[in-house]
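Posted in: Protein Modeling Q&A

I'm a second-year student putting together a small comparison for a lab meeting, and my supervisor asked me to include a predicted structure for Resolvase/invertase-type recombinase catalytic domain-containing protein. I've never done this before, so apologies if this is the wrong subforum. The sequence is pasted below exactly as I got it from our records. If anyone can share the structure token output, I'd also love a short note on what stands out.
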Amino acid sequence: MIIGVLAEFAEFEREVIKEKTLAGIALAKVEGKFKGRKPGSKNIRKHHQYDSVMAHLESGKSVTEIHRLTGVSRVSIAKWREEL
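Accepted answer (user: helix_wrangler)
Welcome! Here is the predicted structure, written out as tokens:
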């Protein structure tokens, strides 16, 4: 029962944090301080290690091996591998 009550409090706190965050973003937008993600920031080819990772992929190295060599996340490497 105590765990259930604590879980309810945690859920309530998450909702409060979410509301405060959204309110803060809305206020910042009104004041012209928040503009969201920069245009083109999701362009993966601009990643500073994209070319290196692609070269490793083309040479047949595994995702884990490339991760160890470059420090790029395994998820990013796996997504980039789909381009080949």
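A couple of things worth pointing out for your meeting: The chain has a mean pLDDT of 87. Residues 1-36 form one domain.
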